[in-house]
Amino acid sequence: MNKKQQRHFESLYQKHLTALKLQGLRPKTIESYSRAIRRISNHFDCTPDTLTKDQLKAYFSSLVDTHSWSTVKIDRNGLQFFYRHVLEQKWDWINIIKPPVAQRLPTVLTQAEMAILLNSTRQLRYRIYFLTLYSMGLRLSEGLQLQVGDIDAGRHQLMVRNAKGAKDRIVPLPEVTLSALRFYWRHHRHPQLLFPAMRKDQLRSPGTLAVMDRGGAQAAMKATLKSTSINRRITIHGLRHSFATHLLEKGVDLREIQSILGHASPQTTARYTHLTQVTKHNAVDQIRHLMDGLAFNCEGDMS
């Protein structure tokens, strides 16, 4: 793009960001939709308001070959939003992308493998972070954003704030997890965050609530798996899947699990029934029994 086109792009891009914010979309969605505009503009080296239908088809065809269907769908939605709210034009090509319907079951660990994974995690902050995600069925970002004030130690509950769908929820807080969080907090003593960034990272962003790096947590998971005998591909999100499956194995009712995980639809939770057979029991008691049986060691490398 020449300088004039670049200025025009920057104007459109800023309007897109403003529209995304005014529509109340979450920061992660705003970043994804704005990245879609940057990506297609860089691909053609032109402003996105000049693209033709054939160019869009060619672009998405190449995107399918190089990116996941999830990325393709997000980029399509980002462009649709751009046309509707910035260009104020009808999106005529909504059906050019039809992602295949995939019915995949999540990869989960056994309870014994979970204990191996947790206790094989070398660095203390990641060990307790993984325990926290697993023992309460949290998503990666939900765990990173946890604050000291979210804990209700007297009721053994934890408030998950501003989770997916901008919803709050309360989850049971097992004693082993509460003890581990207290143990870790005594080392960093951050006034607000349970999982703050390393001190060097906080110094780069003074005055902000810098949380632990998600990339570092993901790298720690990969490194830990390599050091164990667990020969399955499992991600951090797999800890949440494993937790839900283990609760089913303990007999917890699906509706209770849906509430704990924060699923909007019971169908999302029901997929775990493909992994185990269960009967109904009380969720809070079963979580306590599950975590009481976990041999967890807080001692670890503080680096």
Count of structural domains: 2
How big a fraction of the residues is strand? under 5%
CATH superfamily of the largest domain: Intergrase catalytic core
Radius of gyration: 22 Å
Gap between N and C termini: 46 Å
| Element-level helix/strand string | HHHHHHHEEEHHHHHHH
Total strand count, please?
A: 3
Describe the largest sheet: 3 strands, antiparallel
Structural class assignment: mainly alpha
Main sheet: strand order: 1-2-3
Name the shape in a single word: elongated
Question: CATH fold name of the largest domain, please?
Answer: hpI Integrase, Chain A
The proportion of residues forming helix, as a percent range, comes to 40-55%
Task: Give the count of helical stretches.
Answer: 14
Could you characterize what this model shows?
The protein has 303 residues and is mainly alpha-helical. It has 2 domains: 3-96, DNA polymerase, domain 1 (Orthogonal Bundle); 111-292, Intergrase catalytic core (hpI Integrase, Chain A, Orthogonal Bundle), CATH 1.10.443.10. 55% of the residues lie in helices and 5% in strands. A 3-stranded antiparallel beta sheet has the order 1-2-3. The longest helix has 20 residues, at 3-22. The radius of gyration is 22 Å and the shape is elongated. Mean pLDDT is 85; it is low at 277-281.
